[in-house]
Design a protein that fits this description.
With 563 residues, the protein is α/β, with parallel strands linked by helices. The protein has four domains: 10-96, no CATH class; 100-164, Alpha-Beta Plaits; 192-237 and 256-263 and 285-362, P-loop containing nucleotide triphosphate hydrolases (Rossmann fold, 3-Layer(aba) Sandwich); 368-562, P-loop containing nucleotide triphosphate hydrolases (Rossmann fold, 3-Layer(aba) Sandwich), CATH 3.40.50.300. The protein is built from 21 helices and 24 strands. The protein has an eight-stranded mixed beta sheet with strand order 19-20-18-21-22-17-23-24, with helices on both faces. Strands 12-13-11-14-15-10-16 form a seven-stranded parallel beta sheet, sandwiched between helices. The chain has a five-stranded mixed beta sheet with strand order 7-8-6-5-9.
């Protein structure tokens, strides 16, 4: 007889997808439990769809979540019986994590299999076999230490992730401590979740610590977590960031809140190449080369010092050449920081293999509830294309359709209306297309920052915005990542990068830092109705819906609004 529990929100399906009823009284609790081991793939109004994948299970295992816990969650919140084979396959995939171990002996690196048949299977695999230098026993192989990263990549792709217990080099010692009082004034202390994240990553120096990814919302202080990990490791550190602005923010925070002195922190980018015990570099300089067939000249930075820790800020943006060199850096401790593990290129498994598994993932709504980040309301504003653009849009090619919809001239009036609604709240207007953002900025009489804006001018405008001398700022994609605008309370998105979920999360994150008073932020996304832009908007919202945010849809008619 089939069990039916109408109060429960989950419907577990045989293809490893899970349907979640948003209107269920148990939805919030079930969603938070489910997000620990499943990934959101669809989020229309009433039924969300999650998928349980091998990688999502292995990340859960690395975080200490057992197959029994996963199954208990599904049974606890499922409306119907859980298909038996799903529970069996969860146990099967969970059991694969840790069946292969990388360890170190006096002569080098060893790969151990849990049993001889598994050892024989990987020994015969055409992708793994070339990385095995010698068979030592029915269950073990010698591996060249230089292949430590590549063999982990190969193993995760064939479905048998190796647990890396081979340890790390200590690196060049560097005494570093966190201040109790920041040089900029005021007491400084780690928040509880920041301290927990650093402790879990470091694991008191044990082999199971020292590599992995910490996922925290934008505005929750990922830089502070990175500094706490540096203080735990006590070694020379290389920090990789998305751009020069982000690098300088890291340097300012390090000098303000740690015991490091000016001469211990170096900046490495297109204009400055200063290698010091702590060096902060950009992904752009690491992947620069004069020609497409030339070597990446600056990847040598990874060998410039005996780094004890490498921090990958915004690790979901890690470029392919840095992946390649990271494969050879597995003896260094590695920390990835991000608000989302979603990668638009689908290489989440490479982050898992080369940086490490997800160690910490704190739900956005949990930190909002504790007041560490601002509460946010998200609104999608839909408006029509002007009549004179409807036929050109109808006959345009798909990519041109997206741009035409994104640059809908009626968006200017919508922006004006939103600015009038929030007259005294610091506001960012964010767009993908430079000409569009420049035109709107000119119409509104506000400054605009693009990728071509000189760094000195960027710094001056950012400072004016943070100081309150500037109330509205228009920015291109340069504001997507690691830009510290703590007083921004409103974001108006006029165009985005197709269906990029990571970009949607980062743009919301620009306004989530805690605020005095009501601690409330507003995120608006303006899209053209009945166009491909509207379709992509749904894809962009997926990650934020997973984090517990919902979008109000406001449909703007020519003669008014209807909600």
């Amino acid at each position: 007889m089939t069990t039916y529990r109408p109060e429960n929100p989950l419907i577990v399906q045989g293809d490893h997808t899970v349907l979640v009823e948003v209107d269920s009284p148990r939805y919030l609790t079930a969603r938070d439990e489910l997000a620990r081991f499943a990934e959101l793939i669809k989020s229309p109004e009433h039924i969300h769809t999650y998928r349980i994948s091998p990688l999502s299970i292995w990340n859960a295992c690395a975080a200490g979540i057992s197959a029994d816990e996963i199954s208990r969650t599904l049974y606890e919140y499922s409306k119907y019986e859980v298909p038996q084979h799903v529970a069996v396959e969860i146990r099967e995939y969970s059991s694969r994590y840790g069946r292969l171990r990388l360890e170190r002996d006096g002569e080098g690196l060893l790969l151990w299999a849990a049993d001889a048949p598994l050892a024989e299977e990987i020994h015969r695999n055409k992708h793994v076999a070339p990385l095995l230098t010698e068979r030592l026993s029915p269950e073990s192989f010698r591996v060249d230490p230089a292949s430590r990263g590549r063999i982990k990549q190969a193993l995760v792709k064939i479905g048998f992730p190796a647990e890396d217990l081979a340890g790390y080099r200590d690196g060049e010692p560097l005494p570093i401590s966190l201040r109790n009082k920041a040089l900029s004034g005021g007491a400084f202390a780690l928040r509880h979740y920041q301290a927990d994240a650093a402790r879990i990553f470091h694991a008191e120096g044990a082999r199971r610590g020292g590599s992995g990814v910490i996922v925290l919302p934008c505005g929750a202080g990922k830089t502070i977590v990175g500094m706490a990990c540096m203080a735990a490791v006590q070694a020379s550190t290389l920090v990789l960031t998305t751009n020069v602005t982000a690098s300088r923010q890291w340097i300012a925070e390090l000098l303000d809140k740690t015991s490091l002195q000016d001469d211990q922190v170096g900046e490495y980018n297109g204009s400055t190449k200063d290698v010091r015990p702590v060096t902060v570099a950009t992904y752009n300089i690491m992947t620069w080369r004069p020609r497409n067939d030339a070597e990446f000249a600056h990847l040598k930075l990874f060998d410039e010092r005996n780094w004890g820790l490498i921090i990958y800020d915004e690790v979901h943006l890690l470029p392919a050449p840095v992946f390649q060199v990271t494969a050879g850096l597995q003896a260094r401790r590695r920390l990835g920081l991000t608000a989302t593990l979603v990668r638009e290129d689908g290489r989440e498994d490479d982050v898992f293999a080369l940086i490490g598994p997800k160690k910490v993932d704190v739900p956005w709504k949990v930190l909002e509830g504790e007041g560490w980040i601002a509460a946010a309301s998200c609104t999608e504003i839909r408006l029509t294309l002007p009549e004179e653009l409807r036929m050109p849009y109808a006959v345009a090619e798909s990519r041109h359709k997206f741009r035409m919809a994104s640059e809908n001239p009626r968006k200017l009036a919508a922006v004006r209306e939103l600015l009038a609604r929030h007259p005294d709240e610091p506001t960012l207007i964010i767009g993908m297309y430079v000409e569009q953002i420049k035109q709107i900025a000119a119409e509104l009489g506000v400054p605009v920052l693009t990728g071509n804006t000189a760094q000195r001018k960027r710094d001056a405008i950012y400072e004016d915005f943070k100081a309150g001398r500037l109330g509205v700022l228009a920015v291109s994609k340069i504001a997507n990542f690691a830009v510290d605008l703590p007083d921004a309370a409103v974001a108006i998105q006029i165009s985005g990068t197709f269906g990029s979920r990571q970009e949607e999360a980062q743009r919301l994150g620009r306004i989530l830092r805690p605020k005095a008073g009501a601690n409330q932020a507003h995120f608006y996304s303006i899209v053209s109705r009945d166009t491909v832009e509207q379709d992509f908007a749904l894809k962009r919202q997926l990650f934020l819906c997973e984090q517990g945010y919902s979008y109000e849809i406001r449909d703007v008619e020519e003669k008014g609004n209807r909600s």
